[in-house]
Amino acid sequence: MHCYVYASQRKPDSYLWLRERDGFACIPAPLALMLGDLRLALEVELTGERKLPHEDPQVVLHHLQTQGWHLQLPPTETLASANHPEYKSKPHDDQ
């Protein structure tokens, strides 16, 4: 899959992988606010066998295919929920 990697100008060493060039419409608004301005850093042909330094290529491909984007944070940070499909939904009030 051909994909596009954008570097966050607000959050150092944070990258947003997109299935489509400049396809920002699929990004949840809170995530877009957190990342701020983005600049294209890389275009790459991604396969499940390609080695990535900090990401599992199978996971990246799955996120790109199912939601159109994948968030890559610095190795010392975790925000696993940001890559979860439910991140797009609003919190539910069960009361």
Describe the protein's architecture and organization.
The protein has helices spanning 29-35, 57-67; strands spanning 2-8, 15-18, 38-45, 69-72. By secondary structure, the protein is of the alpha+beta class. A 4-stranded antiparallel beta sheet has the order 3-1-2-4. The longest helix has 11 residues, at 57-67. The N and C termini lie far apart (44 Å).
Structural class: alpha+beta
Described by strand count, sense and barrel closure, the largest sheet is: 4 strands, antiparallel
Rg of Cα set: 13 Å
**Beta-strand proportion:** 15-25%
Number of strands: 4
Helix content: 10-25%
Q: Summarize model confidence as the mean pLDDT.
A: 84
- The stretches of 5 or more residues where confidence is low (pLDDT under 50) are none
Keywords, please?
four-stranded antiparallel beta sheet; 24% strand; 19% helix
Secondary structure: elements and pairs:
Layout (H helix, E strand, L loop, with lengths): L1 E7 L6 E4 L10 H7 L2 E8 L11 H11 L1 E4 L23
Antiparallel strand pairs: 1-2, 1-3, 2-4
Give a brief outline of the structure.
With 95 residues, the chain is an alpha+beta fold. The chain has 2 helices and 4 strands. Strand 1 and strand 2 form a beta hairpin.
